[in-house]
Amino acid sequence: MDFALSKEHQLLRQMYRDFAETEVKPLAQEVDEEERFPAETVEKMAKLGMLGIYFPKEYGGAGADVLSYVMAVEELSKVCGTTGVIVSAHTSLCCAPIFENGTEEQKKKYLPKLCKGEWIGAFGLTEPGAGTDAQGQQTTAVLDESGENWILNGSKIFITNAGFANVFVIFAVTGVVEKRGRKIKEISAFIVERTDKGFSVGKHEKKMGIRGSSTCELIMEDCVIPKDRLLGKQGKGFNIAMATLDGGRIGIAAQALGIGEGAVNEVIKYTQERVQFGKRISQFQNTQFQIADMHTRMQAAQFLVYSAADKKQKHVPYSMDAAMAKLFAAEAASDVTRRAVQLFGGYGYTREYPVERMMRDAKITEIYEGTSEVQRMVIAAGLGVK
Amino acid sequence: MKIYVCVKQVPDTSGKVAVNEDGTLNRASMDTITNPDDLNAMEAALQLKDATGCKVIAVSMGPPPAEGMLRQLIAMGADEAILISGREFGGSDTFATSQIIAAAINHVGLDEEDIVFCGRQAIDGDTAQVGPQIADKLEIPQVTYVADIKKDGKDVVVKRMLEDGYMTIKVKTPCLLTCIKELNTPRYMSVSGIMECYSKPLTILDFDALKDEPLIELDTIGLKGSPTNIYKSFTPPQKGVGVMLEGDGKETAEALAATLAAKHII
Amino acid sequence: MAFNNTDISAFKNVWVFCEQRQGVMMPTTFELISEGRKLADELGVELYGILLGDNVDGIAKQLGGYGADKVLVYNSPLLKEYTTDAYTKVISDAVEEFKPDIFLFGASNIGRDLAPRCAARLHTGLCADCTHLDVDLDGYIEYLRTGSSLDVEGMNFDSKLFDVKTNLKMTRPAFGGHLMATIVCPRFRPAMATVRPGVMKRRDFDAAKAESVEILHPEFKLDASDIKTEILEIVKASKKLVDLIGAEVIVSVGRGISKDVEKGIKLAEELAEVLGGVVGSSRACVDAGWITADHQVGQTGKTVHPKIYVALGISGAIQHKAGMQDSELIIAVNKNADAPIFEVADYGICGDLFKVTPLLIEAFKAEKAKKA
Q: Are residues C171 and C221 in the same domain?
């Protein structure tokens, strides 16, 4: 067991932090207030290899590992939760399922452009009537008469990166099968391109936090795609979705981790500047105890997140680890950012300081890619508790 | 074609600086960084590499931990690095340092089309002397305070900044250019660059490797041989404490203005 | 080596490189001549100016007015504009011929290009960007008494390496102004220094001395083939750069204006106008691209000593203080009561510059109106 970061990881951290402080932080408030997708930052990250961190070089990736990716999302999220989730959704929810399930042709076609940031990726599972409950899926895919094309119909909602993505991993019902006497929907995964006929991006959601991330509806009306866009085997879509979400949870856990750590940094700085009753407020024991608790919670979250990343890297089962990491990091981030606002007092409630934004951004990490309640279900099931 | 980029690891004087009781700098307590102007020099070299595919070699003189900085420069895009390191070289002033670095460049080889890049000056000494002195030792032309570079075969056309304007100068390779921060914005290390930086070549040149180089004069290197020596060092005195005025309102401003008027300062 | 510069006794007199651009003497030259006069008097030797250009005899006399005894003038079309190669050759040859003991250059972009190249060629030491020079030991000790944190009483100033009473002691800031170091060049001659512009005090101009200065035209060798660079174009800055060094009042802005950069700079301009001054800035504002580099005060910017220096929203990093703490009067406005700028301020106001500056503008206007 080695808790020390390698020399490469230390340099990566330094680079990510430098990049985040210089390129991302100055835009964070504007991105939030104007609900603006920071396309210029995405372009810069692409040049540095931050959009394909843990994929092999032969597919255009940077050839680093899962921890290197987690650290990137963490450092970005310390200063801007929006930028953190853009990288997380692109990497974990689009590049990863194609890398893990795609044919060689699919990988060669999509990964280099995704990893180099020429294309942005997104993931379409959630529907108005179906979130984590995959059996609620309404989107359908059927082969046309020639047997050469799939025709997709239906819509997806709350899709991160949607407005700017070029490639979407989409789930659809491809039939009904009998399993232990019950009729259940057969779900398959597909790669859909933004330019495919019959595909369109719908309404842009206005959100409480991560307001610069582009969250939209996807609409497929007789959307025709060639049959080689089927991702993985027909009928394996549910497994692909669940495995993808396991990985995605590590990314969101890293986002939560970063947001919480960012808030702690702000609090440490502010409480040493702010004077009340003739003392720096950092001199009050309440402040000290609060900061100690906040930092400890985030440190614990970091261990869970890094440990889950390490297991994914080593290809050992990590579903429970990812769920625990996300559950703990998300709740810690919400708690820590809320306390940060409190320590800032009135200023914390204003947009002059970033902690109110961090508090709004933190909340989503308890919700998307499986709510905290869903994480608890995964953990309990992993423990065999029925 | 090769480009040498001379870089220095320096204490980060922008943060907290600790001074020992004897007036020397407490280096152990300070972070070290790559000298900022040297990063502009590296970026200039990497842009030429992007355009021409030439080889970029980072060169530094310093103690063994300077390897860490050189690895970062490789992670930015340098092909290899040379660390000149030896007890005999320690304490060198600019004359001695430039002699040793020139000898190292000569040792590796300086060809027709090669260029040596330096930063304008290092933030620890702020001398701006090592660049021109390397050029003189290597007997190649120099241009300092470079804010723009265009290369066309053996001709390099550069913009050289002056306090009151600039000159456009044409110089033939091999030559030495010192770069200012207006020249460019240094790139970040890339993720793949970082993953590979520890497997790229880094050569350490010690005293034995360089002592027979024709440019080395054994009696003008290191602390003892340097032409200049430190006679005394000290910290500047703090000015006497002034007055903190009460409040930040209209009365305060008016009282200050009245005081200055009474003293005939305004 | 053809020329033995370890024979210290063979070297005599103080030289100043007199920088001219397009036939106009750079103002720093007069500061250096004034300082060189002091050193020459301490040593009891002559002060020489060395002036290179094309037909520059006409400006040589000015140097006498600030204290030069003699001026060596080198005229050639090849010296009309500054090139490193030509100037280094002519100057190095002159040094080998006349053997000066001390040689000063202004630390301008040209001086800092030329002096190190000459020092390398002449095989001698060079101290960069000096802010204080002494030959006289008592004068140096007196300088330390007031200008340093050292306890000079009982301190040993002797050295086995050199004669502490006749060697030039060159003092300069290092590590961003955190430390001062006094440098000597004991084994080789000349002892060379570049001197920071704006630091040395210019003497009053003496018209009689200007008339009596001796102008010499030594022979020299220079061929077009000695010059390896080609000047294609010289462009003077079209925008008038702010003259911080000559300003009597400077109102500087720092990171504190980040909330509303435009307004912050505008307030500084208004206050500067009321006080009859110009706007300066900290390095942070220049690095952030809020204001151009010619406004920068501090270690890497300009060293200033105006009559009034107003610091708005400047925390007072040591690099900044290094460039302004010798101002005659310092007023600082900062939100943070613990900001280091207050350590050097004569008057400090703890408050938001966006609130305080308009009040100061009004108050100063009112006082000025009373006097008018």
A: yes
